[in-house]
Amino acid sequence: MESTNDYVVIKAKDQGVQVIGLTRGQDTKFHHTEKLDKNEVMICQFTDHTSAIKIRGKAIVMTKYGTIETDQ
């Protein structure tokens, strides 16, 4: 599995933050879901299978492009 070397760091600000990986291809589908507890950190990487990451809940998202805080 080849990756683009783009990483995303997600830090949960509340309990139960959902991180959802979405597939590449003609049909975009959920392929992986994780639930983070408050202050847990997850490091994600885009791959041949993962084209997008969806985040539900209050979190800090850090990328090479900057830091984003979700609103809820």
Automatic annotation (TrEMBL):
Keywords: RNA-binding, Transcription, Transcription regulation
Listed InterPro entries: MtrB, Trp_RNA-bd_attenuator-like_dom, Trp_RNA-bd_attenuator_dom
Superkingdom of the organism of origin: Bacteria
Pfam families: TrpBP
Coiled-coil ranges (or none): none
Domain Tryptophan RNA-binding attenuator protein residue range list: 4-71
Family of this protein: Belongs to the MtrB family.
Subunit text: Oligomer of 11 identical subunits arranged in doughnut-like structure.
Protein name: Transcription attenuation protein MtrB
Organism of this sequence: Paenibacillus thailandensis
Source species taxonomy: Bacteria, Bacillati, Bacillota, Bacilli, Bacillales
